[in-house]
């Protein structure tokens, strides 16, 4: 019956960290203009560098805005509004993001949906005004575009990115067209729910099911659902995860640690 691959996008197919960090800085300036008055280009470059390190904690794009502001507050005491920013290190963020995030959302009086809309709007404007540089701030991992193009497997994209951005990058940067009904983006529900929908489809009965993800927390959520026991689970070790998470994954029998070269071979 063949193989069905459900693939995460950011951190599995595409390294979008450069684009999302720059977009987050642009959006943060729109959302909190007064706070960003004191941010010069040197500090901006520092923020973008740090964002590459803390990227593994991001589940949904809007969190990039929170991280940008938190990094600024950690460097500029004069604008500090959050109780957690003083003495904060990137290691603290990697360890404790799930505890830090609700605190700053409340202290800054932020709304998740409003931040999602703003982040999408800033990206749309960048794409509309200068598609080439928006595309150029992303890169597909080596070998991935060809693996997608020539794959004999059935492929679905299951991502927390907004579908229109994943679709644009696949077409413009990878030269790959995946039918829109096979891209499950932000707003289609949690990934566990999408996997349940996919496995129930009549046309997928009897297929081998594979889910490739770079977030250990997401794979652990799948393991908690007995209904999803039929899925083969993979953690992409080239994606946005930490050494500590890879070591933890290696000790979980359901999860296979995957290298990029093996991933490309599997898809073919």
Automatic annotation (TrEMBL):
Q: Name one GO biological process term.
A: SNARE complex assembly
Q: Which GO terms describe its molecular function?
A: SNARE binding
Q: Which GO terms describe its cellular component?
A: endosome; lytic vacuole
- Name by which UniProt lists this protein: Uncharacterized protein
- Recite the lineage of the species: Eukaryota, Viridiplantae, Streptophyta, Embryophyta, Tracheophyta
